[in-house]
Fold these 3 entries.
Entry 1:
Amino acid sequence: MGKILKKLTAIMLAVLFVIPATGYAAEVKKKPVAEIYSKNSILVDQKTGRVITSKEPDKQVPLASISKVMTFYVAQDAIKNGEVKKDDLVTIDKKMLKVSGSTMHLKEGEKVKFNELLKGLMIVSANDGAVAIASHVCNGDVDAFVDRMNAKAKELGMKNTYFINPNGLPIYDWTKKDGDPKQNHSTARDIATMTKNLLDDYEEETIAITDCKLDHDPSRDCNYYNTNPLLHMHSNVDGLKTGYTDLAGYCLVFTDKMNSDGKSDIDNRMIGVVMGNWCKEDRVRSANALYNLGENFETKLMCKKGETVATGNIDNISDLDNIDLQPKRDCYGVVKNNEDITEKVRYVKIDATPNEETTVAYLDYIDQYGDVIQSVPLVSSNLEHISLVSRVKLMGNKIKRLFNMDKTDEKKELPYTVVV
C-alpha cells in the first residue's frame, strides 16, 4: 500500500511540474501586442515586410481618410502613364465642393495646379482636393477613378479592401432612419501593404509631400499644416496619413526611417498602422508604442549572393549529395539585437535540366515565434557537373509528378548542413 501511495505521489508531482512548463512554453511562443489603445494595428518594415507586431490585423474596419493614400497612389500612376501632369491646372467646379470635413478651401472657378491638390490631399487631408484629383484624372468621372482604386487594391493583394469614394467620407442614406452608411473599408494589414507598395513605387514623390510639417502655396496664398502628430514629435518620421470619422475613430499610418542612427546595413523604413482609437491622445499613444518598438530593430545583411550558406542533398540522388548551396541574391532581414533567429533549408523539386540559376532550395530565417521573417532562394554551382544517370533519375521523378505518382513526403527533410 505504501509503495502505491509513493507512486501516486510521484505521478502527481510530475503532473504539477509538467502543466506549468507546458503553459509557459505556449506563452513564450505567443507574439506580444505592442499597444493597447487602438482596435487594430500592425507594424512592418518596408523592405522585407516582416510583421513586428499586430492586433487583429485582418479585421475589416472603416478606412476614413487613410483612403487618400490610395487616391494619391492612383494619381501617381496617372502621372507616370502620362495621363496628367503635375503642373496641370485643374478648374474647380461645384461637384468638387459638395463635401464636408477637412478642406483646402477650394473655390468654384479657380484654377489649381494638380500637384497642389496632391499636397492638400496628403498634408491637410482635403476632401474637396480628393474629389478634384479624381475628377481631373478621369475626365469628370469620379466613379471611374474609384474603380481604379479598387483595381489597384486587387493588384496589390489587398483582399479585404474596397472603396466607394476617393476621400473616405461615409455616405448616408437619409431616406432610411436606421442602418449603417456606405463607406470605404480595409484592414491594418492591407493598409500596410498599400503603404509599402506606394513607397516602393513612388518614394521620392510621396516623402517630398508627407515629410512637410508646413507647406505654403503662393498661388493661393495658403498654408497647409500637416495633421500627422508623429511628424512633429520624431525627427526620423517622414509620413504618412491621418484619418478620422465617427465610425472609424482616429487612425494613422506613419513611416519612419530606420537608419537614422547608422546601425542598419541599408536604408529602410518602419510602417505603422493604428485604427479605431477613441481620441487623438490615444492615437498618439498607440502610434508611439509601435514607433518605440520599431526603434529596437535594425536591417542587417543575413547572407550574401554567391557565398556558400549550406550543403545538402537534392532529391535523394547520390550524385547530388553534399553539394554547396548559395543565395541567388543578397538577403536582408529586420532583427533585434541578440534576437534568437534560426535557419532552415527547404528543398524544392527540380526538373532534369538544372543549371547554376535553378532554384533548388530556400533558406528560411525563423524567429522565436516560429514565423519566417525572411527567405532567400538557393542555387548550386555544382549542378553543371551532374551525370547523365542523375539527369535520367530527375526526369523520372518529374514524370512521376506529372502523373501524381510521386509519393515523396513533401515535409520530409533531406539532409543538409547550414554553414552561415
Note: The two ends are 58 Å apart (CA to CA).
Entry 2:
Amino acid sequence: MLEFMPLMLFAVVCVVLMAGYPVALSLSGTALGFAGLGLGLQALGIDAHFDPIFLAAFPNRLYGIMTNQTLLAVPLFVLMGVLLEKSKVAETLLDAMALLFGALRGGLGISVTLVGMLLAASTGIVGATVVTMGLLSLPTMLKRGYSPALATGTICATGTLGQIIPPSIALVLLGDVLSSAYQQAQLDMGIFSPKTVSVGDLFLGALVPGLILVALYIVYVALIAWFRPQAAPAADRQELMAEIGHRGSLFTLLLKGLIPPILLIVAVLGSILGGFATPTEASAVGAFGALILALAYRRLDIATLRDVLRTTTHVTSMVFLILIGAALFSLTFRAYGGEELVGHLFDGMPGGVVGATLIVMLVIFLLGFILDFIEITFVVVPIVGPVLLAMGLDPIWLGIMIAINLQTSFLTPPFGFALFYLRGVAPASVSTATIYRGVLPFILIQLGMLVALAFFPGLATWLPGWLQ
C-alpha cells in the first residue's frame, strides 16, 4: 500500500483543488502533509519509501525559480496583454477587421477569428481573450443575424488560441518545464552532455499548427456562410460604420486600428524567430510597444496605468506562487519514489511509448476540466515528461501536443473554462446548451489537429529544425 503513496499524493491534491482551495496553497500544503506523514512513519520504524534528502533541495529550487531568466518573460508578456486590453486597442482592432470583412457573408465570423488570433499573440491569456471578444463582438454578431451557436462557438474557439499562438504564456511556462524534464531524461539515459530545448524552439514548433488551426476555423465559418447564408449573413458596411461611430474612411481606421498592433506582434515574434532576441528580451519589447500604443491612442491615464500594474502584479504573483507550490509538490513526489513508479507503470502499458503517450494525453485532457494550464504544466508535466522523453519522444512535439490538448479540453463541455468565461458575459437570451452546441465543430477541428500531429510530427518539428 505504501509504495503507492505518490499516486495517493496526486489523488489527494486533485480532491483538495476540486474542493475550491487556492491552488498554490493546495499544492504546498498537501506536499508538506505527506512529507510529514513520511517522516512520522519512518520515526515509528515503518518503511514509507520516503527519502527526505529531496526536501533539502527545496531552497536551491526556490532560488532557481526566482532567478530564472526565462520566467522573467511572464510578467512582461502579461503586462503587454493587459495594456492592450485595458487601453481598448482590441476594440479598435475589432472595429477595423469588422469593417474590412463584415460586408462578406461570414465576414464578422472571419473578423472575430483573425482578431482572436492577434489577441492570442498579444495577450496569451485565454480568459481575457474570451471575455474581451464576448463583450465586444457577440452583441454585434447577434444583432446582425448570426446563429447564436456559430457566434459563441467562434468566440470560444478563437479565445483559446492563446494556448498555442506564440508568444503564449502557456508556451513560456511549458518550455521552461520541458527543458528541465528533457535534461533530466537524458541524464537518466546516461547522456551527460544533454541537449536543451528552449522556449523559442517551442514558439517555432507552435507556429505552423497554430496557423493551421486559424485557417481551419476560417474555412469552417466560410463553409457555414456558403451553405447556410442565414446563419452568417453579410452586414451593411455603412451601418457598421455608423454603429462604430467612425467618421473617416475605411483606410484611416485600418491604418489606426490594424497596422500598429500587427507591427507590434511582428516585432515581438520576428525578433524571436529571427534569432535577434530571446523570448525574455522580446517580451520587454512587447511591453514597451504596448505602452507606446496605449499612449498614442490617448487611452492611458493614471487610473488605467494603476489598474494595469495591479492586474499584472496579481497574475504574476499567482503564477510564481503556484510554481513554488508545484516545486515542493514535485520534490515530495520524487521523495516517495514517484518517478520510478510512473516509469514502471509506463513500461508495463500495452503499446509501449504509443500507449503511454495516449494515456498521458487522456489524463491531461481530463485534468484540463478541473485545473488551469499553469497547474497542469507545473504538476503533471514534471512527473510524466522525463519518463516520456526518456522513451524517445521529441520534446518540441510533446510540448505542442500538450498545448493543443489543453486548448481542446478548455473548449469541451460541460467543464471547459472558455465556456464558463463566455457564459459569464453572454446575454441571457443565449442558452448554455447553445454555447455547448456551438463549440462542438471546433472541438472536432482541434482533435483532427491532434491526430494530424500524431501522424505527421514534422508539423511541429520541421520549422525549429530548419531554423537551427
Note: The first helix runs from residue 5 to 18.
Entry 3:
Amino acid sequence: MKTKKIVAESMPLALKMVRQQLGENAIIVNTRTIKKGGVFGLFSKQKYEVTAYAMEKKSPTAEPKFALELKEKPEKPLLNINKIENESEEQEETISGFHRNPQGLYNYYSKNPVGTEKPIPSTTPTKSQESEKKVSVSSKAMEEQNPLLDELQQMKKMMMTFMMNGKQDEGLPPNLNNWVTRLKKQGVDDEVVGDLVNRILLKNESKADLADDIIQTELSAMIIEIIQKKLPVSNIVNERTRMINIIGPTGVGKTTSIAKLATEQVLKQKRRVAMITTDVYRIAAVEQLKTYAGILNVPVEVVRTVDELGSALKKLEHYDLIYMDTTGRNYKEVEYRKSINQFLNHPLESDNYLVLSMTTKFEDMEILLDEFLESPIKKLILTKFDETSSYGSILNIAYKYPYQLAYITNGQSVPEDITNIDATLLAKYLLGREL
C-alpha cells in the first residue's frame, strides 16, 4: 500500500496530483487547510493538504523464481494475471454500493482456492519434485495473503468512515460539505457517505468550487443507481408461487401488510386466497387477521406447531395462494429464529418477506438483517414510511445488503397504502428536493 501526503495551492490541484501520483483508484483519507510560508506566522499562505493511499502493483521483475520456471513448461502455461484482474473488475460492478476489492486477485483466489490444482507434469523427475515443493511453498504464501487482502478491503471502508467523522470533512468544498451534513441528518451511514463523496471528488478534480446543482445531480444519480440495483424486476406474484410468508418483529405492521397484499390478489388478480397465522402469542393479532379475512371472505387457520401447519396446508391445498402471518418475537434470540425457519420449511413454492419499520434505528435493523442473511428470506417490506422524516436507512440497506427492496407502506388504509419502491422519489426525499 502506498500512502502520500500532498500539499497544493488549491483543492482541485491537490486532487489532480493525487490521481497523477497514485492513480485513478486512489482513496482519500484526509483533507485539511494549512498555513505555509511567511515570517513568524505572518504573511503565510493558505494551502490544501490531502492524504491518500493506493494499492501498489507488483513489478513483473519481482515475480517468484518458481513462476518463471513454470512459464517454460508448455504442458500447462501460467494463468494470465492481467486477465484475472480485468475479470475481477467486471464482477465488482455487480456488487452493491460501488464496493471495490483492493486487488483483482482477491476475487480469483477466493473462488479458486490455491493448493487444489493437480501437480504440473514434468519429464524430469528431480525437477518435478523440486517444482512441486516450490508450488507448495507458494500456495501456502497465497493462502496467508487472502486474509491480508480481506483486511485491506476492510481498511478501505474504515478509512472512508474515518474521513467522514469528526473534523475530517473541513477541507471539503463548502457546497459539498453542506450535502454531507444533509445526508448524515437523513441517517445515511458514514461508509456510504464517504464512498459518495470520494467518487464526486475524483470525478470533479479540476473544479475549485463545485456548483450546488452539479453536486445534487451527481448525488441523485448515484443514489438512484444504488437503490435500483436492489429493486425486484416485478412484484407480480408468480403463478407457481403458492405461499407468501411474512416475518418480522412485533409491531412493525406484518398483519396489516398481509391484508394489503391479499386484497390486491383477491380483488384485482381474482385469486382464491387463504390465510394462516402462527402468532398465537398476541390474541389481538389473531383477531385482527380474522377481521381482514372476514372482509375479504377468505378462510383463516390458526396454527401453533409445525405439525399443525402441515394439517392446515393440506386443508387449504385447493387455494391459489396462502398468506402466513408468523409470530412477532425477539429475533435476536437464536431459538426464535430456529422456530421461524421450521415454519418456513414447507413443501410449497413460496416467497418470504422480512418486514422492518422505518421508525427503527438502522443499527437495530442491521441486527435482524445480519441474522437472516443465511435464511430463505430474500425480500423486504419497509413499513411506516409516513411516520418518519429520515430515509437514510433505505440507502444503507441497498448499499450493504443483498436483500431485494420489494414494498413500502405509508399508512393504515387497506389496500391503498402500499406501493413499489421508487428509487427516483427516494433520492428526492434524501436530498430534500421539492416534491
Note: Confidence is low (pLDDT under 50) at residues 62-125, 134-144, 161-169.
